[in-house]
Amino acid sequence: MPSPTWIKKGNAISVEIECCFPYGIIETGYCDSDYCCGECEEHDYSYLYAKLNKYRKNIYICHDSSIECNGNAAEIVVTASVINIKQILTYIMNIIKKLGGYVNASCGMHVHYDMRAKKLTEIDRSHLEQQARAIMDYVSKDRLHSGWCAPTTKNGKYSAINLNTGYDTIEVRAHEGCLNANKAIRWIMAMHQVIYKRKRIEECL
């Protein structure tokens, strides 16, 4: 999640929604990039962008080859402030479902939390390592063995809580694919408390 300069430091949340669509929603051909930006001629997201135009500033759509589906896969990245994320995410998830979008076991919901205004201490790191194991009790059991989110902070990118994103963020990768906005927001705000307030996940869910 590159720094969203229009959102006050420490207040941004970015949600990566991995999902599938029926054929025809995305114009696609052969592309040898695992994470295509959608701007090559083989991936045309113009129809999706048009349908989500109300919040065009807040979204970015790309291809993710880790998603397996009978149709077209997409990763829709939604960035908003803590205050606005519920309203915007609810709208976007509803549009995805209206277009026939769905999730399966290959999909995840990854959440980036803005750390531009906070530096991690050793106490923070120890707390998050403990919580990286604890949060796996609150997500689909498929996630534990998926290879995409090991129950630690120390498995690089593929950690349940990734502390080394390359941006000023912490990424929580544990949650399965989700298009239920209420469930998603509950998880997002619970993890917000875990990260910023050093709370335990069982206190927040």
Description:
There is one protein chain. The protein is α+β, with helices and mostly antiparallel strands. The protein contains six helices and eight strands. The chain has helices at 46-51, 85-98, 122-134, 141-144, 181-197, 201-204, and strands spanning 12-21, 27-28, 43-44, 59-62, 72-81, 109-114, 161-162, 169-172. The strands form two sheets. A six-stranded antiparallel beta sheet has the order 4-5-1-6-8-7. A hairpin with a 6-residue loop joins β7 (161-162) and β8. The two termini are 25 Å apart. The relative contact order is 0.18. Residues 29-41 have low confidence and may be disordered.
Please indicate the percent range of residues in DSSP E strands (runs of 2 or more). Answer: 15-25%
Calculate the terminal CA-CA distance, rounded to whole Å. Answer: 25 Å
Helix percent band: 25-40%
By secondary-structure content and strand pairing, the structural class works out as: alpha+beta
What series of H and E elements makes up the topology?
Answer: EEEHEEHEHHEEHH
In one word, what is the shape?
globular
The overall average pLDDT, rounded, is 90
What oligomeric assembly is this protein in? single chain
What gyration radius follows from the Cα positions, in whole Å?
A: 16 Å
* SS field, number of helical segments: 6
Low-confidence stretches: 29-41
Largest sheet: 6 strands, antiparallel
User: Tally of extended strands?
Assistant: 8
Main sheet strand line-up: 4-5-1-6-8-7
